[in-house]
């Protein structure tokens, strides 16, 4: 097998066979993203039940992506480059593996053993974990230097989001190569060079979740009030800029003044909030079974799923209008 040259400036996705291990909801959307980028994909289903549903999910993603002009070809054009299997032996020629299984280190350890028993020593192995430190997962592999985190967001074939996370023993050249490659997946990636639990996005979001629970559980606001505040304030501008650019745009001194008085009052508890604990302990799974922070009829749950899917395509079109380098491009245009 050809060895990956991380220093090569030329990347052709069609020449890079990749694999996805784990074909749940996110595994299917990741596979869709990779197919659209031009890769041939071997998708391994550790759970037999996923063999029955994966191809249809991926096909539907591709059909909708064509309708939404995300890809230029019909579904069958991409599906000819997809192999769905339970056989790890088919990973033999892959150059990049993306593990996308349950957040259970025991399960992941067995998966990595199955992968490393087959793939070449030059193959890069990654995990889509959203919580387990990459440095910890590296300890479960035979060659830690070729192991990284690839943290995707659902739906993976429409969002710009991707975090590339280095563990303590990661070869930085492999991280840089993945960073370059991910641009061919229509991502605006973030390279996390120093491992930390939760990486970037989850650390930011779980700080918000913690404060949201505090406000509801202590009677300051309802669940609906908090949701409205999120969507109509931060939700209004975050597709364009992040928190630091937002402060630049709206006046840094004001934030400095507020921080001095507000920071000491923010919640910093470490216990799981009772509100979510009670929901989970009574079997609540959100729209999956109609029992969450809101209650849903089957019809409401279906419509929320469809609305989220519709929104993901709409917001993608808006986001593409305002890429991360939008001002740089405008400056270049003005100089012409």
Task: Characterise the protein shown here.
Keywords: Oxidoreductase. InterPro entries: 3-OHacyl-CoA_DH, 3-OHacyl-CoA_DH_CS, 3-OHacyl-CoA_DH_NAD-bd, 3HC_DH_C, 6-PGluconate_DH-like_C_sf, 6PGD_dom2, NAD(P)-bd_dom_sf. Pfam families: 3HCDH, 3HCDH_N. This protein is α/β, with parallel strands linked by helices and 336 residues long. It has 2 domains: 180 residues, NAD(P)-binding Rossmann-like Domain (Rossmann fold, 3-Layer(aba) Sandwich), CATH 3.40.50; 127 residues, Orthogonal Bundle (N-(1-d-carboxylethyl)-l-norvaline Dehydrogenase, domain 2), CATH 1.10.1040.10. It has an 8-stranded mixed beta sheet with strand order 3-2-1-4-5-6-7-8, with helices on both faces. Strand 7, helix 6 and strand 8 form a beta-alpha-beta unit. Helix 1 packs across helix 2. The longest helix has 24 residues. The mean pLDDT is 94.
